[in-house]
Amino acid sequence: MSTQTYEAETFRKLQPQEYLRKFLLKEVRPDGRELKQFRQTTVNLGCISTTNGSSLVRIGNTTVVCGIKAEVSVPKQTSTKEGYLVPNVELSPMCSPKFKPGPPSEHAQVLSENINRLLKSASILDLNTLCIHEGSAVWVLYADIVCVNYDGNVFDACVIGLITALSNVKLPKATFAEEEGLVKATEELLIPLNLSRLPYPATFSIFDGQYLLVDPTEVEESVAHEVITIICDEAGQICTVWKVGGISCTPKHLEKCISIARERYIEIAAIVENEEKSNNLI
Amino acid sequence: MNVQFLFPKPPPSIEEVKDADGDIDMLLKSQRQKFETKVVTPGEVIAKDTQYMRGHGTYLDENETHLASVAGVVERVNKLITVRPLNTRYTGNIGDLVIGRITEVSNKRWKVDINSRQDAVLLLSAIHLPGVQRRKTEADELQMRKFYSEGDLLVAEIQGSFQDGSSSLHTRSLKYGKLRNGSFLIVPPTLVQRTKSHFHRLDCGVDVTLGLNGYVWVSKPSSRVLNEMSEDDSEYIYSNENEPIGKDAREAIARVCNCINALSKSYMSITDTTISYAYEASLNFSVKEILKLESIELIANQTKQRLKA
Amino acid sequence: MADRRRIQGPEVSVAPIILKSPNKIQLLDENLCRRNGRNLEDIRSIYLKTGLISQANGSAFIELSKTKIVCGVYGPRQTKIPAFSGKGNLNCEIKFAPFSCPKRRPPYRDSQEKELSQLIYEALTPSIRLDLLPKSTIDIYITILENDGTASCLAAAITCASVAVADAGIEMLDLVPACSASYINGQIFMDSDLIEEKRESGSLVLSYMPSLKEITHILQSGEVELNLTSQAIEQCTDSCSKIYSIMIDSLLLPIQNMK
Amino acid sequence: MSSSLISPSELDYIIRGVDDNLRADGRGRLDYREVILETGLIFQANGSARCRLSKGTDVLVGVKVEIGSIEIDGTDEEVAAVKAKRGRVVCNVECSPIASQQFAGRGADDINNELTQLVDRVLNGPQGGLNLEKLCIIPGEECWVVYIDALVLDYGGNILDLIFMTIRAALYNTRVPKTVIEEDKEVEISDDVEEWERIEGWELVPISITLNKIGTRHIVDATVLEELATKAKLSVMVNKNGKICGIQKIGGGSIEHGLLNEMMQTGRSIGQNLILNLDKMLQKEDEINAERAKNDKIGFFAAA
Amino acid sequence: MRYVTPGTRLCFASEYEAGPGTYEREEYIYSSVVGIVQEFIPTVSTNTGEEKKQSKIITVSKEKHQSSIPDVGNIITGKVIRMTTREAVVSIMVVGNIPCKDDYQGIIRSQDVRATEKDKVKIIESYRLGDIVKAEVISLGDARSYYLSTAKNEYGVIYAQSVAGAMMVPISWQNMQCTKTKAVELRKCAKPEDLFSKNQ
Question: A GO term (biological process) for this protein (chain B) (predicted)?
Answer without folding.
Answer: TRAMP-dependent tRNA surveillance pathway
